Fold these 2 entries.
Entry 1:
Amino acid sequence: MSSVSSLAAMYQEALLAHHRAPRNKRELAAPTGVAVHKNPVCGDEIRVMVRVEDGRLADVSFGGQSCSVGTASASLMTEAVQGLPVREALAMADNLDAMLSGDPEAVLPESLAPLRSVAPFAGRHGCARLPWTGLREALAGSRLTGG
Amino acid sequence: MSAALAPRSDFPLLASNPGLHYLDSAATSQKPRVVLDALRDFYETANANPHRGAYALSALATERYHDARHTIARFVGLADSDCLIFTRGTTESMNFVASAWGPSNVQAGDEIIITALEHHANFVPWQQLALATGATLRIVELTDRQTIDLDHLRDLLSPRTRVVALTHVSNAVGAITPLAEAVRLIRSRSAAIIVVDGAQAVPHLPVHFDTLDVDFYAFSGHKLLGPMGIGCLIGRRALLESMSPYQFGGDMIEWVHDTHSTWNVIPHKFEAGTPNAADAVALAAAVRYLESLGMDNVRAHELALLELADARVRELPGVTVYGPPPAERSGVVSFSLADVHPHDLATILDQHGVCVRAGHHCAQPLMRRLGVSATARASFYVYSDASDVEALVHALQAAQALFATADSPT
């Protein structure tokens, strides 16, 4: 059962700072993959844009509207996967899922630590996952188009 | 007015969670002990398959089921209780009408009217019926207070209108439809059948079906203190008798020949399979509980709380409250706070023991018209009191403080 102290942890400054001033919330020039992912529970919508070059994420950005958790997760994600090989970005998405599901072995870069605070809030996992699901879809689309 | 109308001690979940401020009764109500007892009692003392066995226990189950239908019909002002069909809830009831009445009565060139205020359960079945039959779907727009625009309804009505489906009370903003006025308008300008979503009306307002002059009226048990999985569809006898069955199977047949079958009389024609007798009996217990409180008292209690909550929430900076003034609303406060997403709000409120719904409330057409993806909704019922309102306001202030701190430059 989560408590007021874990609430404070979730809404720690790091997460709120990304909500307040999201990184990479912009249009992407010449994307190789774009995915719009909606959360049917709340109606939120995040659009993830990727440009894959030589199997790496040359650029990634996002748009749309969502709650603080969704926006912060998107912002943190775009910073974390920037420049990574596609394979590693997808692994990171899998690890994020595992972390939210309570897997203590899940390895995440230190920069994504603020998202660990979402784990006690099962009702918000969908918000945190929203951009990562969008990333997977954008990358899948990118592969299909040969990007 | 600050006390609850029904004692919290009547509701086991509330009694065992004294710090809980349950403000999501529009989604589902809490259940009084008498309802849980009735459910248990049916299974412990009367459990057999109704309408089946030639033995006393089955006859008892049949009698309990029959009495439940009678009790619930009386509660909603329906004299002919055969016209009350048990369903799983409002959603199934609406799908039932759209799929059992729709295809043989609606064709290309006809028009179906719904409103922008509808819950998806009274929107999508008609949208799909229109798509399947080639009929045209017309949507009545709303006033700037999120009530059904009767002038627009008047403009849309024509001899081509076959169905008007509208809500009695909006689940998302609580707006009460002036149903008598709408019905007069519809009757004067079309021969359409009138289908009413009463899911948010029957729990909160006195409803008398026989005086409404509508053709179908649906509601759910779980929103009026009853169990989940049982609801009702009321229809006019002539319409119900003219309709083909919705599902086929046991109980609904009169005689099954090798090549064809004939149907049982209403309501059984529309209740294929073993009926949900236990939940019907428990719903009847819920209805008796509400009758003991008095539906006029329920309305008065909710209105007093609503007026308090509406005023207190409006005092907060950056708040937008949707819907008409409290006198024209059921016990719902649907609102947004500037800079705090409703989903964040619900999580923060939860940590203060305050349960509210955040989301589109299964009313995406309405959300589009409001220009928001979601709102937060606090809703009241017989066990709510002024301390729930104060807890809500306190938690909202805490949420604003949290986001204000984060937004200030460091």
Entry 2:
Amino acid sequence: MRKSILAGASGIALALALSACATSANNSGGGGGAGSAPSAEESGTSPKLTDCTNKMKNDAPQVSVWGWYPNMANVVDNFNAAHTDVQICWNNVGQGQDEYTKVQTAISAKKGLPGVVMLEADHLSSYTIQDALVDLVPYGADDVKANFSEGAWKDVSQGDKVFGIPVDGGPMALIYRTDVFEKYGITTPPKTWAEFAEQAAKVKAAGGPVFGDLGSNVPAAFMALQIQKGAVPFGYDINDPQALTVKLNDQASKDVLNYWADLANKDLVGKQDQFTTDYISGVVNGKYATYTSAAWAPGYLTGAGVGKGQSKGVWGVAPLPQWDEANPVSVNWGGSTFAVTKQATDKKLAAIVAKGIYADPASLEEGWKKQIIFPLNQAVLKSPEFAENTSEFFSGQQANKEVYLPAEAAYKGVTYAPITTYYYAQLQAELVKINSGKVTGDQAADELQANIVKYAESQGFKVTQ
Amino acid sequence: MAHTTAVDVPSPASTTRTRSGRGRPGLNERKRSRTGLLFVLPFALVFVAFLVAPLLYAFYLSLYSKGLATGVVFAGVKNYTTAFTDPSFLKGVWFVVRFALVLIPVQMFVSLALALVLDGLTTRFARFARLMIFLPYAIPAVIGALMWGFLYSPTFGPMQQIADLFGAQAPFLLDADHVFGGLMNVVTWQWAGYYMIIIFAALRGIDSSIYEAARIDGASAWQIAYRVKVPMISSALLLILVFALIGTLQFFTEPQALRLVSNGTITPDFTPNIYAFSQAFAYANFNYASAISFSLGIVVFIAVYVFLFLTRKRGSIA
């Protein structure tokens, strides 16, 4: 009998681990407080600034920052050297989802968040609904508004509030293998998705590699491709935080799902998850003729070892294929911002950091020259040096001028839902089913819609379909 | 849980009482029972602080529900009714139950066979083999799982390289059709050595004169193994069965580590524990995660109780 009692206990041992982190989660009031604007000091405190990765330049008051840019150490040093009023105490607690897990835990615990935190634009509303981020308009966000394009600014705004200062973006384009295109007689990269499918079939018929890849683990990219066809997946307004519009099975969303399902079923595109060793080794070996990706991709690929040895000098980039060539639509995948948290001890100083970090010329130049980021700062985007730059990865092509700058200029911005993580997980599950041929695009879209609506309602949203 | 402590603690005291007579609970006796309590105290403190209190807190959390848009409300058992009708949770439970039903017999058979062979050998090779078989258990589960992820790789894994020789495509052991077997292989590899050591130790505890008697009676080596050794170590077998059952129902580490290379096969609701983890740390739903954890606890409790009930005869002999 004792054994069974012990067994029961260890069965719920996870509950123990969970609850340890959930201190006071039950009285944080959820997201209902967006309109009530609680006083800042009540929302908890930032951690003590004893453990910074960087060294301070002077004795000014410090603001803690979490961020994961590869050149973050230099960015922080540049900021600190230029400021006598505030110093950054920086830590890298992980990239993307790894950081978000920690952010979420700190929000639930009501302590442990830094003053300024790096967040991707599509995750901002997941935290604003929990009342975790500070509206930066009263702290002079409009001072830097002119530095960014309209689309980039829309991505960090909700209504007339602004919850993050953008740093980099990911205008999407079509990266392709010049050697594969040459071998199979493709003279111009596809301008439309119809051409894309045509050329894919042609290469396959000639015994060539798959044309692209439908990785289930990049739902954000897939959502962008749906938006390109005219889908508006979510409608959300922070002034009415309980209302959420969900439209995941409209015709545009279904069309894009069907299009890729068709390519996948005919084995014209790969079904490999991206950012994996298997995918990168395939990219290096010419297993994929194209890579539908964002402006930061060359930097990422270079870091992963692509563009060296046998895969050197075989890359080109073209604008993203369109559904309607006459009305091109530009979409974005990824890109990050710096947001000020409600837990920041001094929000004014934190806002200075959010506005100033990665905004100085030296940091930005290092960022784009090393292809770590595609900056959104207009000072860079408008500089002739940036436009005329020849990309080593793309064998001397003026990638910025030809592809990425026009794409960024045409980007209109997107409204993201406050349930991004859940939505991405469900979209990923549907893409897996499509890749295994278990559902059609229509079925996937309908399932997704039902699933997300059910979840949103369980979270207390009034859902409009 | 407090129940077990309560049962354990008074037992030395009660034997003292019978010895010193019923009438007078002397000073000496009270002192002794206090000493006994003091000995238990360090354990009891840690036990209460790190197991009982968090359990109670998690249970408390599980009675509330938090919607992103609504805030926290008292929910009573609603989280539990939701959990037991939640297809994600039920699918996960069904997976780990099926997994346990297949994995445990395989694992038991492998470790028992290994232990019996090693018990029968007395060469130096036996010691070396024992160490090698045990080695996977010494490798942290995450590293072991990642290593298997590379071995399974459809691009550069050894299976694919062998298949390439015949111009074939090796199956990807983490796709939807094979993930069951792929994970079973990883877990068996990881744990069979550990169970083998437990069985082996139990086998070493058997008096060798029993084998001699069996041999005089004309038993073959097979008969000794099957009719003498196995029945005599049944309590060790029962122990590892219970370990394996609990461990499997709480399946987490290996699928979580292999999630990134599984091409999406391993979903955030793949097993109940992964589902609870996702709910808490990805979807900010600690309350529901607590309820799922408790629900899983209930499932484990029932499974182990049923199991011990079915095997209670053998258990009581041991």
